[in-house]
Amino acid sequence: MIDKIKRRIALFSIKRLFAGNSQNSLSFSRFFTNSKFLLVCIPQETEGNTYLFYTLDELLKDGKKVTLLVKEAQFEKIKSRSGYSYIIYKDEDLTRLNLPGKELARKINTNQYDLFIDLDFKESLLNYAVAGICNAQYRMGYLKDSADKFYNFQIPVVERNSEISYRNLLNSIRMF
């Protein structure tokens, strides 16, 4: 019961972030090709998900400047990967509603991003809030509850096979 109330309050707070950001119509023509700076949220669970790293490497091959939003515990596993910028956060950087605190929001706002990508298959209030904080014109992620309020480009998830889901994401953005 408490978790449901906290979730509703958090969703309300996140919607307020997007109040000034909404645009009536966006042209998706060449949106990926023209995007130079990407902010990518890494899933909370990366164990056994090798195709996630393939997807990230493919984004780098396209000549994009990729910044990864990573929890400190995950950073230890991926810090050897070169070519990325990192925004590292800890549980202490989050509010009680699991939203970014002031310091984390400041780190996110340091750069201007053209495209925000949420690579988590599960709903994450933190990722929804980051999408609003970073002020990226294009925000994409996987199809999940409430995502249509925060992302303007969504990819269906193939539950049984994460490889197919990540391939679908890469194929979808390469069309643009």
State the share of residues found in helices, binned by percent: 25-40%
Summarize model confidence as the mean pLDDT: 84
Radius of gyration: 15 Å
CATH homologous superfamily annotation: Glycogen Phosphorylase B
- Which CATH first-tier class would you pick? Alpha Beta
Give the strand content. 15-25%
Given helix and strand content, the structural type is alpha/beta
Gross morphology is: globular
Total helical segments: 7
Counting DSSP E segments of at least 2 residues, the number of strands comes to: 6
Task: State the end-to-end CA separation.
Answer: 43 Å
Low-confidence stretches: none
CATH architecture: 3-Layer(aba) Sandwich
Q: How many structurally independent domains? A: 1
CATH topology (level 3) name: Rossmann fold
How are the strands ordered across the major sheet? Answer: 3-2-1-4-5-6
Could you spell the SSE succession in H and E letters?
HHEHEHEHEHEEH
Instruction: Describe the main β-sheet briefly.
Output: 6 strands, parallel
Describe the structure.
It is a single chain. By secondary structure, the protein is α/β, with parallel strands linked by helices. The protein has one domain (2-20, 27-174): Rossmann fold (3-Layer(aba) Sandwich), CATH 3.40.50.2000. 40% of the residues lie in helices and 16% in strands. It has helices spanning 2-18, 31-34, 50-61, 72-78, 102-109, 125-133, 162-174; strands spanning 37-41, 65-71, 85-89, 115-118, 138-142, 153-155. Helix 1 (2-18) packs parallel to helix 6 (125-133).
